[in-house]
Design a protein that fits this description.
mainly alpha, single chain, 9 helices, 61% helix, 155 residues
């Protein structure tokens, strides 16, 4: 049951990409690898994150999906976490923050992405995490990032 299509996608990738939760459950129960990667290094979790599919993301994370696998094709080293930050999904961001070991460099990228994409709620959540993990963000940058996020949110 680990056959792949020409893109390297398994049926679990395809089910996650379409939000077919029942199929995702069945494939996991049948023992499919939840963190298998396709030809572009996407896991089923990347697809669910890209869709903003909370039920599928939660199911995959609870089933042991690796949240730190980076995509090295279209986007430079984007994990499911960065996809969710870019989309501004604060609920999924919070879920993955608990599961990810986000290093300072990745946290800075996430903070910048949230600001550029105009997601002030996600930005504030990330800034709180930065305080918790002792990431070194200069105070002058914080005001700028908050302003940037608010201005981009208004457009």
């Amino acid at each position: 049951m680990s056959a792949t299509d020409c893109f390297g996608d398994t049926v679990l990738h395809q089910a996650a990409a379409r939000g077919l939760v029942g199929h995702v459950v069945r494939f996991i129960d049948q023992g499919m690898e939840v963190s298998s990667t396709n030809n572009e290094d996407w896991t089923p979790l990347h697809f669910a994150a890209d869709r903003g599919d909370e039920r599928t993301v939660e199911l995959l994370v609870q089933s042991g999906a690796e949240v730190n696998i980076a995509d090295f094709s279209e986007r430079t080293e984007w994990t499911p976490f960065m996809i969710i930050v870019s989309a501004g999904n604060d609920r999924l961001c919070k879920l993955l923050l608990r599961k990810c070991n986000v290093d300072e460099s990745n946290m800075r990228d996430a903070v910048t992405e949230a600001a550029l994409e105009g997601h002030p709620q996600v930005l504030e959540m990330l800034l709180q995490e930065c305080e918790d993990t002792d990431a070194d963000l200069a105070a002058r940058d914080l005001g700028f990032l908050r302003s940037l996020a608010k201005n981009n949110d208004d457009t």
